[in-house]
Specification:
Blueprint lengths: L1 E3 L18 H11 L4 E3 L8 H63 L2 H22 L3 H8 L6 H13 L3 H22 L3 H22 L9
Antiparallel strand pairs: 1-2
Helix pairs in contact: 3-4, 3-5, 3-7, 6-7
Length: 224
């Protein structure tokens, strides 16, 4: 049942038109109040079903779009990861090829440099004899193998062979370390300094062993 009071005269209308100081404003006030005077008691306070349906549809569309965007992002991430993995594989393959090429070139150099390899083999024998002499505190025997200075022929031949087979910066660094330690070894033995001779010998042998590992000559030389 609807309660309708649309015929009721508002208080503003009871006043004479001439007595109202604001006739235009009272007319607007009347037109604003009329729609609110008649309202159904049974009118539902809840939103219209069509409005709810539209809201649900909009929510569903937004959710679907969000999920699709996530799926697309995931696919893009997988694609980018695949590209990076392929690039890494390509770089690894190129590195393997370069390493193989260097080994082949090095092996060819070793095979064609029998004289230089022989000088290095002689160095291995000398280091073994020097080490045995120092262990026995027999510095005169060590001096007989080393010589008195770096001008000895065997030292010159060894330096030439080391320079010839050294290609990478690491290999050249080990050659420098060996040459410096060998000079200290000769000097310490001549001074009959047992402790300094031991330290210099270990440094020389260690640097030379690392160098043979880097160059691949450890497989070619005996006694290392």
């Amino acid at each position: 049942m609807a309660i309708c009071v649309s015929n009721a005269k508002p208080f503003i209308h009871s006043l004479p038109s001439s007595s109202s100081p604001f006739p235009i404003h009272t007319q607007k006030l009347n037109s604003w109040r009329k729609p609110t005077l008649c309202r159904s008691v049974k009118e539902s306070p809840f939103p219209h079903p069509n409005l709810i349906s539209r809201r649900r549809s909009l929510s569903l569309c937004l959710t679907t779009s969000f999920l699709l965007s996530l799926g697309g992002s995931h696919e893009r991430l997988e694609a980018n990861a695949a590209i990076l993995e392929a690039e890494d594989d390509e770089e690894l393959l190129q590195k393997v090829k370069m390493d193989k090429k260097k080994r082949v070139e090095r092996q060819g150099l070793i095979s064609s440099s029998g004289k230089d390899t022989a000088h290095l083999q002689d160095l291995v024998y000398k280091l073994n004899r020097i080490g045995e002499a120092i262990d026995k505190n027999d510095l005169p025997a060590a001096s007989g193998v080393l010589g008195q200075d770096l001008k000895a022929d065997w030292v010159k031949n060894v330096n030439l062979a080391l320079d010839k087979f050294s290609i990478s910066p690491q290999e050249k660094a080990e050659v420098d370390a060996f040459s410096s330690s060998l000079a200290s070894l000769i000097s310490s033995v001549e001074k009959k300094d047992f402790e300094a001779s031991r330290v210099a010998f270990v440094a020389s042998a260690t640097a030379f062993e690392k160098w043979t590992t880097l160059t691949g000559l450890a497989r070619e030389l005996k006694g290392i």
